[in-house]
Amino acid sequence: MNSPRTKSVPRESAGTPLNTALSAHVLDEIKELPAKYPQPRSAVMPALDLAQEELGHLTPEAMTEVAEALQLDPGYVEGVATFYSLFHLEPVGRHRFYVCTNLSCMLRGANEIVDHVKRSIGVERADQVSADGLFSFEEVECLGACEFAPMMRLDHRFHYDLTAERIDALIAQRRSSLPPLTPALSPEGEREIAKPKRETAKPKGEREAATPKKVTAERPRAPRKKKAADG
Amino acid sequence: MAELRGSHGDQPNHILTRWFGTPDLHKLEVYSSKAGGYTALRKALVDMAPADITNEVKTSGLRGRGGAGFATGVKWGFINRDAPGPKYVVINADESEPGTSKDRYILENSPHLLVEGILIAAYAVGANQAWVYIRGEYDEPYRMLHEAIEEARAKGYVGPKPLGKDYPLDIRLYRGHGAYICGEETALLESLEGKRAQPRSRPPFPAVKGAWGRPTLLNNVETLCTVPWIVNNGGAAYAKLGTEKSPGTRLMSVSGNVRNPGVYEVELGQTFRHVIMELAGGPPEGRRVKVFWPGGSSAPVLPESMLDTHTDMEALAAARSMGGSGGVIVMDDSHCVVRAAHRLLKFYAHESCGKCTPCRIGQDWAVRTYERILAGEGSQVELDILQRVSDGLQNGRCLCGLGDSGGWVIDSTLRHFRDEYEDHALRHECNVGKVMASA
Predict the structure, then answer these.
(1) Where does residue A180 rank: exposed (0-12), middle (13-18), buried (19+ CB within 10 A)?
(2) How far lies B30's CA from each of B9, B20, B106, B232, in Å?
(3) CATH architecture of B249-332
(4) Start-end ranges of CATH 3.40.50.11540 in chain B?
């Protein structure tokens, strides 16, 4: 069995049109990172951040480019990216719901919130994206805002005391307009604003490429006869 | 900014949260003028020798607030101040123990408190550079801390000559990327160095060989935030608070089935009854506390009958639990202990870094066993497996405490709620009123 923290990296099949090249200015930014740390290797995660911000998720090609820019082995970079849950190896929606379902939130209705999110955006699993490409979701572990349970993170902000109505309002707001995103964060905070680069950077047909893929590394689960309910 | 749920200097014994709730406390000007901010830094840099500062912290008896509760002053003393070459202070702001939100509470309310604590600590142990490892999901705390550091830089507190002292001090930020294991100090260091966050074997300890191979002091956010008060008021004054072996106050984040969840500053030695029933308002109308986790999800559970347990570390050890991270999770009698334990084991299985076999295999094994039990397919065999896996996870079989933590959840819930486990596994029913599928 793989390490629990190792995700599989989906590979594009030959002939699939790729649009994974990081733009020159991002690569330049990445090359400047190592000098900011006592040892250059520390730049790998900030560099992957920049790549993910540009592409929405980390493609194998992007990881290779990051590795080249930092003079590291591509396998090493991939090893780091697969370890941390904030790096996405699959396409994600422009707005991703990170809903906490750990104990403090679960005791206050987080599972119902997750069900509502799934129904509202029309997806079943964390590796799927809504048909319009706007939304995806993920159940996450404790986000450290337990006095506001149930809570979640969406668009670089925490949202507290969640109810179905609040979720509806957040979704409606995002469907009706593209709200300004909160300034993105970077090491030392130089970057100004997270621009919706993905929308413009992708050629036609990318939406199709972003449709749900089957996960290969899904853990086989014991079939449940009947869902056990918690009161 | 979010609503403040918790202490804000509303009790005379509040130290950390004394000024919380003051408008714009996160701004340096307000922190200095209204909250007496940076007077401790001035005192430390101008009036005290580094060894004196460490001695005051030793006298205070302050113990680390991250989870292990190690004596802070002793830890500072491990750093050889005169060793040549760079030394670092690394701040663990990767708060991710389930049920714990105290460091976020501090960072969102008073980021300068941390900046001041870091600068004092760095000067005391002979470091010129500090790195704050902050969890990636903490967008707002990151922004506020970043702004606080820049304000302190503009003021000269961070820079080549803080307060005229010829001692350069710098603070840098590093974002985590979603891995609970990074709360473990050596895994955090691996991550800071750009690697997969897998714990190192010790020795060498970080004080000798830490970040980038250099002597490193690692402290939790809350721990360092206590330091300015100790410098201002003296270690002896701090030692008067709390109990003899667990002096002072600590922040307890109370969550789950309580009427007023919040982050409360508690003088150590108070009872959990006070914390849960009074400060947090107790369970909802018509409900009873069934069980609580006294120090984050990793702290072995205590049942309602042990609400009078005291909050100091010795009392908790005597109750076969621990103070941990100060995250108090309360569950009322409308919820099922077996399901709660299953959820936590899923957490530990997900967060296991995979380095040590007992943890990598054991947590997952436990999850699958819980799933069989909850699906109504349990028997005595499943209960025996849980106990065996629990034993296998504990007692130092792994490099870090993550393995033990999962074991403690199983062990302590089995110990206090065996009836409930037997209802599920042997009779395929749940005592909170839901009948399980029959096998």
Answers:
(1) exposed
(2) 16, 11, 16, 18
(3) Roll (3.10)
(4) 28-239
- Give residue A197's identity as a one-letter amino acid code: K
Q: Which structural domain range is residue A153 located in?
A: 95-176
Which domain-ending residue is among A144, A160, A176?
A176
DSSP letter (8 states) at residue B417: -
The model's pLDDT over A56-97, given as tens digits with 9 standing for 90+, comes to: 999 999 999 999 999 999 999 999 999 999 999 999 999 999
Contact residues for B65 (Cβ-Cβ < 8 A; gap 6+) = B102, B220, B221, B222, B223, B226, B250, B251, B325, B326
B34 shares contact with chain A (CB less than 8 Å): no
| DSSP letters spanning B331-367 | EETTS-HHHHHHHHHHHHHHH--S-SHHHHHHHHHHH
CATH at A61: 1.10.10.1590
Q: Count of domains in chain A? A: 2
Closest B-chain CA to A156 = B139
d(CA B272, CA B329): 11
Reported as a single tens digit per residue, the pLDDT across B87-131 is: 999 999 999 999 999 999 999 999 999 999 999 999 999 999 999
A75 torsion bin: left (phi>0), alpha (psi -120 to 50), beta (else): alpha
Indicate if A63 and A112 belong to the same structural domain. Answer: no
H and E: helices and strands count for chain B = 17, 9
Q: In what order do the strands lie in the sheet with A157-159?
A: A135-140, A95-100, A152-154, A157-159
- Is A108 inside any structural domain? yes
> Is the per-residue pLDDT at A3 higher than 60?
no
Mean pLDDT across B246-264: 98
Q: Name the CATH superfamily for B28-239.
A: NADH-ubiquinone oxidoreductase 51kDa subunit (3.40.50.11540)
Element (H, E) at B122: helix B111-125
The shortest C-alpha distance from B348 to chain A (Å) reads: 10
Given the structure tokens 């994600």, which residue do they identify?
Answer: A92
| Residues A77 and A102 occupy one common structural domain | no
Point out the residue among A37, A84, A145 whose CB comes nearest to the CB of B179: A84
Examine residue A47 and state whether it is found in any structural domain, yes or no: yes
Q: With an 8 Å Cβ cutoff, are B177 and A84 in contact?
A: yes
Contacts 24+ apart (CB under 8 A), B35-40: B35/B110, B36/B232, B37/B112, B37/B113, B37/B116, B37/B228, B38/B112, B38/B116, B38/B157, B39/B228, B39/B232, B40/B116, B40/B120, B40/B227, B40/B228, B40/B229, B40/B231, B40/B232
Is there a single domain that holds both residue A80 and residue A109?
A: no
d(CA B310, CA A91): 49
**CB < 8 Å to A1, chain B:** 360-361, 364
| Fold exhibited by the domain B337-427 | de novo design (two linked rop proteins) (1.20.1440)
3-class DSSP state of B421:
helix
Question: Could B434 and A148 be called an inter-chain contact, meaning their C-beta atoms sit closer than 8 Å?
Answer: no
The token duo for A53 is 């911000």
